[in-house]
Design a protein that fits this description.
Distance between the termini: 54 Å
Bound molecules: nicotinamide-adenine-dinucleotide, 6-O-phosphono-alpha-D-glucopyranose, manganese (II) ion
Radius of gyration: 21 Å
Shape: globular
Structural class: alpha/beta
Oligomer: single chain
Mean pLDDT: 97
Order of helices and strands: EHEHEHEHHEHEHEEHHHEHHHHEEEHHH
Low-confidence stretches: none
Number of helices: 17
Helix content: 40-55%
Strand content: 15-25%
Length: 444
């Protein structure tokens, strides 16, 4: 079997060790000859890379490993780029979450004004990664899960329409795993065939069946109606409280449209007053603080321990099992498997009554030519209305980035369902401009 060469962009990410372990677990179906890390923060990346070097030396010495901040080295002779960068890191995520709250609006990493601010930072960096990949390895594919994926996807559609980039998200994977537990499927979510439509972090399941074609929606709905996506105590105890709140709130999101099953992120748009009130009990301590105190601290101290002991035996890195969808996509492309997966792709009629130029999240068959979209047909008025508003926000952000237009970004923030008025939008925008001056293009 051919062996592949991979670059992980955002080598210093908290998710990198989990992805490396996950790749090692799947060597039988997706064999690797080389892994390279690339990051623009040498210090941060070095800590993760030195620890991963020890893991690889012990567990897969046949794989070449290196790490660099030099684009030419990083992007030469590769088949896949797995991209998970966070422009501005957690320091800026914290601002994205806290600034809108000063004006009575919820603060979230990918939704509302926070997500818009993050999008304005991410676009240029993702385009830069694509250009490096195309310059040094023109046949490579980029699997991008850097956020905010919706805005990044629209930007790449506009600015690099021919590029081999696939934008993906793990939230539906996680929710589908929970649905499979609710439906007691022995092999988990891979026993289900689902129909789903929407935008990234903004979608609905409209059909869920087992492999024999039996409808699983009624029993999953029965559960979600009572408990949201909280499945059982064991899973609840293994999850942070803030995520359990989100999974539980899906019950109320579901109540609004019991014909479909919702993505958890819809709570930010449909219950923005609730989210704000809930988070505003501790406005100085948002999810960014929680992640810095937990995931970032845990991953970096596990890395330091490996380096200090010079062995990864009994190490505290854990495999990011639900990230195995990244191997699924890479394998589907490498071996032309036509695997059915949810991707963020240009609509072009797949949702027949929706903007053909919108980047929508729908099922696709993934193979060596990229992907073929599954036709969804017409969607209901409620979803269509919400999606038209949200996709306009995403398109206006990209317009603002490309043209440097203050006006377009003010419109984008005003149009977000999380923001009550144009005057509040303007105040938030002015504060975000100040906070992001090292990252955003200058707006006029
Ligand atoms: P992190 O801050 O730990 O890691 C991000 C890394 O990217 C950092 O080491 C940083 O130095 C690096 N970076 C920033 N700008 C860069 C640039 N221009 N070029 C190269 N490297 C750069 O963040 P994290 O919490 O591990 O998350 C990483 C990313 O993955 C985020 O965008 C996050 O939103 C995303 N993510 C997406 C999904 C999904 O469903 N799509 C799931 C989980 C995480
Ligand atoms: C889900 C989403 C990602 C998002 C992540 C945030 O996995 O699909 O897009 O980045 O949640 O998780 P965090 O633990 O960083 O708050
Ligand atoms: Mn996501």
């Amino acid at each position: 079997m051919k062996k592949y060469s991979i670059t992980i962009a955002g080598g210093g990410s908290t998710f990198t060790p989990g992805i490396v372990l996950m790749l090692l677990e799947h060597q039988d179906r997706f064999p690797i000859r080389s892994i390279k890390f690339y990051d623009n923060d040498a210090e941060r990346q070095k800590k993760i890379a030195q620890a991963c070097a020890i893991v690889l030396k012990e567990r897969a010495p046949q794989i070449n490993f290196s790490y660099t901040t030099n684009p030419k080295e990083a992007f030469t002779d590769i088949d896949f780029v797995m991209a998970h960068i966070r422009v501005g890191k957690y320091a800026m995520r914290e601002k994205d979450e806290k600034i809108p709250m000063r004006f009575g609006v919820l603060g979230q990493e990918t939704c509302g004004p926070g997500g818009i601010a993050y999008g304005m930072r991410s676009i240029g960096a993702i385009i830069e990664l694509i250009d490096y990949m195309e310059k040094y390895s023109p046949n490579a594919w980029m699997l991008n899960y850097s956020n905010p994926a919706a805005i990044v996807a629209e930007a790449t559609r506009r600015l690099r329409p021919q590029s081999k980039i696939i934008n993906i998200c793990d939230m539906p994977i996680d929710i589908e795993s929970k649905m499979a537990r609710i439906a007691k499927l022995p092999n988990g979510r891979k026993d289900m065939v689902t129909r789903y439509y929407g935008l990234n972090h903004f979608g609905w399941w409209c059909d869920i069946r087992d492999k024999e074609g039996n409808d699983l929606m009624p029993q999953i709905k029965e559960h979600v109606k009572k408990y949201g996506y909280i499945v059982d105590e064991a899973l609840k105890n293994a999850t942070e409280a803030s995520w359990n709140d989100t999974f539980s709130k899906a019950k109320d999101v579901f109540a609004l449209d019991p014909d479909t099953l919702p993505n958890t992120y819809l709570k930010y748009y449909l219950f923005s007053d609730y989210v704000f009130a809930h988070d505003n009990r501790h406005p100085e301590h948002t999810r960014a603080n929680e992640v810095m105190e937990h995931r970032e601290k845990d991953v970096f101290s596990a890395a330091q321990e490996i380096i200090d002991k010079n062995t990864a035996v009994d190490c505290k890195f854990s495999s990011d099992t639900h990230a195995s969808y990244i191997v699924d996509i890479a394998e589907a492309i490498a071996r032309n498997k036509k695997t059915r997966m949810l991707l963020i792709v240009e609509n072009q009629g797949a949702i027949s009554n929706f903007d053909p130029t919108a980047m929508v999240e729908i099922p696709c068959l993934v193979g060596s030519n990229g992907y073929e979209k599954i036709c969804i047909g017409e969607i209901p008025q409620f979803q269509k209305g919400l999606m038209e508003q949200q996709v306009s926000v995403e398109k206006l952000v990209v317009d603002a980035w490309i043209t440097g237009s203050y006006q377009k970004l003010w419109q984008a923030i005003t149009l977000s369902k999380t923001v009550p008025s144009a005057s509040v939008a303007k105040q938030i925008l002015d504060a975000l401009i100040e906070a992001n001056k090292d990252y955003w293009p200058e707006l006029k």
